[in-house]
Amino acid sequence: MTTSQPKAVLITGASSGIGEATARRLAELGHRVLLGARRTKRLAALAEELRAEGASVSHHELDVTSLDSMRAFADAGLEAYGHIDVLINNAGVMPLSPIADLRIAEWEQMIDVNLRGVLHGIAAVLPQMQRQAAGHIVNVSSVSGHRVDPTAAVYSATKFAVAAVSEGLRQESRDIRVTVISPGFTQSELTHRGGSTQAQATARAAAEQLAIPASAIADAIAFAIDQPAHVDVNELIVRPTAQG
Ligand code: NDP
Asked: Which of 53, 56, 96, 160 has the fewest CB atoms within 10 Å, counting from its CB?
């Protein structure tokens, strides 16, 4: 299937989970995609696989916690495509734990990746989108950006903050679209790293029981992107039917 209007799309955190699934979906629709993440071997393999199917896909090393790295990623997109139509700020981490555990390095990491990373993404593409008088920033938040649960306080705080930044950017923009996508339990590697053993095991068990495929989130992102320029889908929550 191809889309009527191929776009130049930059995806952060494209080495696994939702970012990878979104790259696959958008490439299949005919969009030109630049993949970013730290695990470049995975990006290279994915780009090669999608190119073999006829897609226009390239990759670039990216650490969203570094503004320089994010700017280099955006520059690579601009060099490859001549413009930037869409940035998908998807990279995220979720090392869950009770606040009383004081896993402060992981709090900092969540703030650095989930919030500062999104701000870096916006900073890296906004001037170009303003020059173009067009563009679309898609921020991947979470159901945890709408509610707070035990062990997810700091993670939720970063996702609530993403909602605030997105709404502010939306209000300040007249020709740049802003979308917040909030997934519920989704199959990915999100619970594989960090957090307290018990909290992560509980999240993994719930995910194993409930999680929807990452392609479901990719489809929602593709829907928002494929709307006409004057239609801004601001907010989508996509979660398993059985999630409480
Ligand atoms: P994954 O762990 O599978 O993917 C996370 C991605 O983020 C990876 O590609 C990883 O790449 C990237 N990443 C992490 N840190 C950095 C960094 N410093 N710089 C660049 N990239 C980074 O999890 P998901 O696919 O689930 O996560 C994607 C988004 O979806 C996140 O924002 C998450 O919060 C959100 N989400 C997920 C839900 C779920 O149930 N899965 C539910 C709600 C929201 P690498 O390590 O190679 O750098």
From this structure: 53
Residue having the nearest C-alpha atom to atom 36 of ligand 1:
142
13 CB less than 6 Å from ligand 1?
yes
Digit-coded pLDDT (tens) for 77-122: 999 999 999 999 999 999 999 999 999 999 999 999 999 999 999 9
For ligand 1, the distance from its centroid to the CA atom of residue 188, given in whole angstroms, is 8
From CA 121, how far away is CA 165, in angstroms rounded? 12
- CA 178, CA 202: separation in Å to the nearest integer? 33
Residues 2-44: tens digit of each pLDDT: 555 899 999 999 999 999 999 999 999 999 999 999 999 999 9
CA distance 15 to 62: 11
**Has residue 188 got a pLDDT over 90?**
yes
Q: Which of 73, 81, 107, 155 is catalytic?
A: 155
Decide: 124 and 70 in contact? Cβ < 8 Å.
yes
Instruction: Give domain limits for the chain.
Output: 8-238
Question: Domain 8-238, what architecture?
Answer: 3-Layer(aba) Sandwich (3.40)
Instruction: Quote the CA–CA distance of 4 and 30 in Å, as a whole number.
Output: 9
Distance CA 236, CA 205 (A): 25
Ligand 1 lined by 94 (C-beta under 6 Å): yes
CB-based contacts of 46, cutoff 8 Å, min separation 6: 14, 15, 20, 23, 24, 35, 57, 59
